[in-house]
Amino acid sequence: MGSGNAGSPARLAVTDRRVFLPYGDVRDTAAFFRITNSGGADDRLLKVTSSAVDGDLELSRHRMTSGRMAYAETVDSARVQAGGGLAMSPYGLDVTLRADPEWQTGTYVPFTLHFEHGGRIEVQAVRPGGQR
C-alpha cells in the first residue's frame, strides 16, 4: 500500500464479472467478481443481490478436506484488503445462485454488491462463451 493512501477510505472497483451456466439438470451455479481496493482502509463485502435471480444468493467459500473431498461453506462476509483486493474463483470464494433457464452464452445479469463502508456497487456479469 502506498503512503499516499494511508488513512483514506476504501476505493472499490469491480471487474472480471462473470456468471457460469449450470451443468445438466440443476439450476444452481456461481458468479465471480474481482474486487480491487485502491484506498487506505479495508472494507467488507457483506452480500450480493440480483433482481434477475429467484431466491437467495450466498457468499460461499470452497475448501478441500484432508481426504481430497471438496465442500462449500456459506460465509457472512469477505474482507477486501486496503491496497489489495479479492479475486473470486471456483476454488475459493464465489456467489452461489439459481440460474434462470433462459440465460444463454453472452447473457448479462445485473448484480448489486453491498459493502460495509463502500455502499452498493451495481454491475453486470456476463455468461462467457465456450472455447473454440
Keywords:
four-stranded antiparallel beta sheet; 10 strands; six-stranded antiparallel beta sheet; mainly beta; 132 residues
Explain what the structure shows.
The structure is a single chain. With 132 residues, the protein is mainly β. The protein is 0% helix and 50% strand. The protein has no helices and 10 strands. It has strands spanning 12-19, 28-37, 43-49, 58-64, 70-74, 78-80, 84-87, 93-98, 108-115, 119-126. A hairpin with a 5-residue loop joins strand 4 and strand 5 (70-74). The mean pLDDT is 88.
Task: Briefly say what this structure is.
With about 130 residues, the chain is an all-beta fold. About 0% of the residues lie in helices and about 50% in strands. Strand 9 and strand 10 form a beta hairpin.
List strands and helices in order, with pairings.
Elements (H helix, E strand, L loop, with lengths): L11 E8 L8 E10 L5 E7 L8 E7 L5 E5 L3 E3 L3 E4 L5 E6 L9 E8 L3 E8 L6
Mean pLDDT: 88
Question: Overall 3D geometry?
Answer: globular
Radius of gyration from the alpha-carbon trace, in angstroms:
16 Å
End-to-end C-alpha gap: 40 Å
Query: SSE string, helix = H, strand = E?
Result: EEEEEEEEEE
Main sheet: strands, sense, barrel = 6 strands, antiparallel
Q: Which percent range fits the helix content?
A: under 10%
Strand residues, percent: over 45%
Q: How many runs of DSSP E, i.e. beta strands?
A: 10
The poorly predicted ranges are none
